[in-house]
Specification:
By secondary structure, the protein is mostly helical. It is about 75% helix and about 0% strand. The chain is globular and about 65 Å long.
Amino acid sequence: MSQWLDSLTGWLSANPQWLGLAIFLIACIECLAIAGIIVPGTVLLFAVAVLAGSGTFSLGETLLLGFLGGMLGDAMSYAIGKYFHQNIRRLPLLRHHPEWIGSAETYFQRYGIASLLIGRFIGPLRPMLPMVAGMFDMPLPRFIAVSLVAGAGWSVAYLLPGWATGAAMRLPLPEGFWLDAGIVAGGLAVLVALSFNASIRDQRHGTRLIAGLSLVALAGVFLGWPYLHEFDQGVMTLVQEHRSKAFDSAVVIVTRLGDFKTQFFLGGLLTGLLLLARQWRHALFAGGALIGTALCNGSLKWLFARARPEVLADPLTSYSMPSGHSSASFAFFLVLAVLAGRGQPPRMRLTWVLLGVLPALSIALSRVYLGVHWPTDILAGALLACCVCAASLTLVQYREPLRAMPQKVWWLILPACIALLAFFAMHSLPKALLRYQY
């Protein structure tokens, strides 16, 4: 495998005119029924994304190619399922491996539309679920709408890390950057692995362990940020090198979702609706996590008083660490993810957390893109939110586990929160663009 991959990347390096087609085809195969299970598409996507980031394609072009390729793979898989229906089990490979379609079928029947959103990020399920959706005659407009949303998140999650690695290797970054980056990545990997293990085994004190691990990691960031200067400078250099005015408007819309006013009203709306629906313990968990995160963030900012990066034409006057946008957005979306995962198996709960992390991470990264926070600022904000959310959940579940909410409560919460987010995202956008200009 390694020798074959080296040969492919070497050939594409010598023939960069074929790299765009390679990204498109690999993304298509990765999302194509049956082929996506056999071909190691994730490894190939990372490799070609590294080549794209080395100067061949911009980030937008790379993500677009991956998105279009994934959409084609989804469409072909859906068409296969629609054409063969139940006879699809007689295809040669599926006849010998019935478990491939069996697990996807069970997942789809249990979670419906949500399975296409969540399963997009689960390797063995990703290429099979669109085919199962076609097999069960899911309406085409509904499938297209869900596939567009899932494909957009998938292309970012699977192509951005490789592209950023390629771009970082090309730029003259500060000496010591890669050592600092390795320390940060290693620490996060240990934290995620231990938290994942505690969650997947459904340990009794799992949330307490996650809270403790997040607290230790947060303390490490606060004590170690003066020694991670090369990491902060390197990432900031990488991001600002590829900043484009064409993306500024979109990024500003994303960052406004994490503004204090937005998160204040959003948290109040969520907690108020939970109280209105008489979900007392759920409201206690949400209110405790959101208010606790806000109070801790303000206290830590005042205590450490770290200056912001000097990227903005009109620098903001408040302190930088931890990022309020990062902590608030992670707290809100993690609360939603935890509530969505109640009463479900451990793997499904973890999948909801992954989905919750994606929008929060987008808001946090927008702060680095706009030059108003250092990377360690948003890392500290995310760890703070994880710690407080896990601690709040531990306290609420001290005597009895938190139960799943009725579906009618979700139909009350989600539309209201989405409408409020959309309002604040678009409100006073021109003023925000002037604030975050180069």
